[in-house]
Automatic annotation (TrEMBL):
It comes from Siccibacter turicensis. Residues 161-258 form the HTH araC/xylS-type domain. Keywords: DNA-binding, Repressor, Transcription, Transcription regulation. One of its GO terms (molecular function) is sequence-specific DNA binding. CDD domains: cupin_NimR-like_N. This is AraC family transcriptional regulator.
Length: 266
């Protein structure tokens, strides 16, 4: 496990290996890497803690045992929770069939262990033929990983960008659609239509999806359920738990317990 802020100075694009992996422990709270891009495709796997990835028109949350896939040449930024442990897999263009868009993938234990083994070989070296077989098996399994809906559509429309910026930085003071209409000098009906047209979601669904991403980030960073509910402006912890369970099918406690239960023992 390598330490530091996202392994400063490392340039994956200098290598032409079909796949290359390394793992890090983020040493700075909420470590943030601004927008950048790679020639190679990149898979960011969260082992412990979590990471939020933003591309031009969407935000993705990556809890433990999930990964975000970022196609090559796509600008993106990353923000990790305190003491997160992450594994990066860089893939040479065209060597394996992967989505041409960003997506969150639920990573099966076999694929996770293959990525970890590849990262270990990078540190210790080893037989090239064995490494090639490892990559071949990884490429057989990786395209089969199921997608999960842990993203927030983020439109480039200036009014919606203003809304997202406020909701990110003032999560404890949510605004109604009517309040936003007054602030943005739009009727509530026209603003509702704009949000659906730009994001494919109603305002309530869109706001709750951002709250879900924020909730995961807060709790994976060490806050408890009550603290997360307060940080997101909920009047009661029960209302927050209801929202979370409706979105992910489990209470926050059960969801986080399941993530930790599936975490690798290392």
């Amino acid at each position: 496990m390598e330490h530091g802020l996202w392994l400063e100075g490392y340039d994956a694009d200098r290598s032409h290996a079909a796949a290359e992996a390394f793992c890090i422990r983020v040493s700075q709270p909420l470590a943030h890497i601004p927008f950048h891009q790679h020639r190679k495709g990149q898979l960011i796997l969260a082992l412990h803690g979590g990471v939020t990835c933003e591309v031009e028109h969407a935000m993705w949350m990556v809890p433990p045992q999930y990964a975000v896939w970022i196609p090559g040449d796509m600008p993106h930024s990353n923000r990790a929770t305190a003491s997160a442990e992450l594994c990066f897999l860089f893939i040479e263009p065209g060597v394996v069939s992967m989505p041409d868009r960003c997506c969150t993938l639920k990573i099966e234990p076999l694929v996770r262990e293959l990525i970890l083994a590849l990262a270990s070989r990078r540190r210790t070296g080893g037989n090239a033929a064995n490494a090639e077989r490892l990559v071949g098996l990884l490429f057989d399994e990786l395209p089969r990983q199921p997608e999960e809906q842990l993203q927030l559509p983020v439109s480039g429309h200036p009014k919606l960008r203003e809304m997202v910026h406020y909701m990110e930085h003032h999560a404890d003071a949510p605004r109604t659609l009517a309040q936003w209409g007054t602030i943005l000098a739009m009727s509530e009906r026209n603003l509702a239509r704009l949000i659906v047209r730009e994001t494919g979601m109603s305002y309530r669904r869109w706001r709750q999806q951002l709250q879900l991403i924020q909730a995961l980030h807060l709790m994976l960073g060490g806050q408890n359920v009550q603290q997360a509910a307060q940080a997101l402006g909920y009047d009661s912890t029960t209302a927050f738990i209801t929202m979370f369970k409706k979105a992910l099918g489990q209470t926050p406690a059960r969801y986080l317990d399941a993530l930790q239960h599936d975490a690798p023992r290392r």
